[in-house]
Write a structure and sequence with these properties.
heterodimer, A: 3-stranded mixed β-sheet
């Protein structure tokens, strides 16, 4: 299974290759949701959060916070790619999924990054 | 005077001893397997000897004989009335089973129904084959199983575009369609899912019908077996009842001590010989087990300690700081020469004792009195049996008996016609 450190490196590389300026460990505090985002581009309002037991991140984002984030994503206000470490088969799969996620973000924003 | 042993000599001897221990270990394992087989063979012979004794005691179901035996054994369950009642009850039970089978419409129309079942089963299989071809391989695919359970491709699916699992499902669904889609003419997962669902739905009632037909065929077979078994039981009823009575007698006698057994049933010559055979076989069994314990199991359990000590010394004495050490030659000689010599002696004793025990078959020379020692007869006074508790105890209780003379007396007696007198003899003399 892919570790969180390696997984985050892959995600930063994929996001940055698509033109996003993600920064690591950014404190995100908005609308009752508060956590340290593993990757976040404040200007583009696109990022990712890697949930893995090794960092006890499952405790950082509560189900309620995830619901609030999901609602904002549905409205197109921001986009967080949420990865459960237990579901990452390998690096290739993670790269492919991150690419498809960013395609979807672009589609929802009418093709703009 | 032997010279002291160097560390190198001890290491070399310990290595040779390790190899010897390994060979000995294999020898013991082989002998233990052989011993198990000896005991199993004796057990079979004991069983046959009991069958023979019971056949002598109950040669048939003659009422007078049964009553006499029931009375002498104190076993009312084998008196003529009880046996007759048991036979009537068993006959009635078997007749009822046969009648129940005959009364069943399934049994009455069995030929026609079986043919019908066979034809319909073939038809079901023909209908199922193309449907199964659609779903059999797909429904066993772990990706398909998970995606289907999660409702992928349906409105039940809860995956969201911002979750990694959404893309994993997407990828796996593509893989499933790539693997199974072309054959089913399905370009996407929902189409494939629909085709599988349709095939399964179509197959379900046919499969249910097939299961019903299989159950019916099994019921017909069970009724036929019931009828055949009951008919056979009725045909063989006298022999079966005789076997049951003999079994009852055996169950009653088997736990008894040999002298009690002899006083109860030891009237005729053939019966006495049969009792002697049982007593002798049981003694052979006890002695075989004690011999294996003494010459195989106990020394075998010590080999691990010897091997451990050899390995430890090889390791310890291989260190440079121990290279100059010397060792007492007497102790070393005892350890590396005495132990293997002991094994050779023990293995010879075991071989000889086992051969004597297994080969013994002169049961008619034995006696059924309580203090008769079969060991003396079997070993003919030529083997040491003091390691057997039974032999040891006998020597303590009868220090006055010259066992060589006792054995000779038994051997001289020889003539089987005198065997019944053994009941009155002590120690075979």
């Amino acid at each position: 299974m892919l570790g969180e450190v390696e997984g985050c490196e892959i995600l930063h590389a994929v996001f940055q290759a698509r033109g996003y300026h993600t920064r690591a460990d950014v404190r995100f505090v908005e609308d009752g949701v508060e956590f340290d985002a593993d990757g976040w581009d404040q200007d583009a309002r696109v990022g990712f959060e890697y949930l893995s037991s090794e960092a006890a991140d499952h405790d950082d984002l509560s189900p309620d916070e995830l619901t609030r984030l999901a609602a904002r994503m549905d409205r197109g206000e921001l986009f967080f790619f949420i990865i459960d470490a237990a579901e990452v088969a390998d690096a290739e799969m993670l790269r492919w999924a991150a690419g498809r996620f960013l395609d979807e973000v672009a589609r929802r924003r009418g093709g703009a990054t | 005077v032997s010279r002291v042993w160097s560390a190198r000599q001890v290491i070399d001897a310990a290595r040779l001893d390790l190899a010897a221990v390994s060979t000995e270990s294999m020898w013991y394992d082989e002998r233990i397997r052989e011993h198990d087989s000896d005991v199993a063979a004796i057990d079979r012979r004991i069983g046959e000897a009991w069958d023979h004794l019971c056949a002598l005691l109950v040669p048939d179901l003659d009422a007078t004989r049964l009553d006499a035996l029931a009375s002498s054994l104190g076993l009312p369950m084998i008196n003529a009335a009880a046996v007759e009642a048991g036979t009537r009850s068993e006959v009635a039970r078997q007749q009822a089973l046969r009648a129940a089978a005959e009364a069943s419409p399934l049994y009455q129309n069995r030929e026609g129904l079986r043919n019908e079942c066979e034809i319909l089963l073939v038809e079901c299989d023909e209908l199922l084959a193309p449907l199964r071809a659609v779903f059999v391989a797909i429904v066993d695919d772990p990706r398909f199983i998970r995606l289907r359970a999660d409702g992928y491709g349906t409105t039940r699916y809860a995956g969201r575009f911002w979750m990694l699992s959404y893309y994993r499902d997407w990828k796996e669904a593509d893989e499933v369609v790539e693997a199974f889609g072309p054959e089913q003419r399905a370009d996407d997962f929902p189409t494939l899912l629909r085709k599988v669902d349709e095939a399964e739905s179509a197959a379900r009632p046919i499969q249910a019908e097939r299961d019903e037909l299989t159950t019916r065929a099994a019921q017909i077979q069970a009724l036929e077996d019931q009828y055949t078994d009951a008919t056979l039981a009725l045909e063989q009823m006298p022999q079966r009842r005789l076997t049951a009575v003999r079994g009852g007698v055996r169950g009653h006698l088997e736990p008894m001590a040999e002298d009690r057994l002899a006083s109860l049933v030891g009237g005729g010559h053939d019966v006495v010989v049969a009792l002697q055979r049982i007593a002798g076989l049981k003694a052979q069994r006890r002695y075989l087990i004690a011999t294996a314990q003494r010459y195989l199991l106990e020394p075998r359990s010590q080999l691990a300690t010897v091997a451990h000590r050899n390995r430890r010394d090889i390791e310890k004495l291989s260190r440079p700081k121990n290279a100059g050490k010397t060792f007492d030659p007497v102790k070393m000689d005892k350890r590396f020469t005495g132990r293997p010599a002991g094994f050779v002696k023990r293995s010879e004793r075991y071989g000889k004792t086992r051969e004597t025990l297994v080969g013994f078959d002169r049961y008619e020379r034995g006696s059924l009195v309580q203090d008769f020692l079969w060991w003396d007869l079997i070993s003919d006074g030529r083997l040491d049996g003091d390691f057997i508790p039974e032999v040891q105890l006998h020597r303590q209780l009868h220090p006055e008996v010259d066992h060589a003379v006792a054995v000779a007396a038994v051997a001289e007696r020889g003539d089987a016609s005198n065997a019944a007198d053994g009941l009155l003899m002590s120690d075979g003399s």
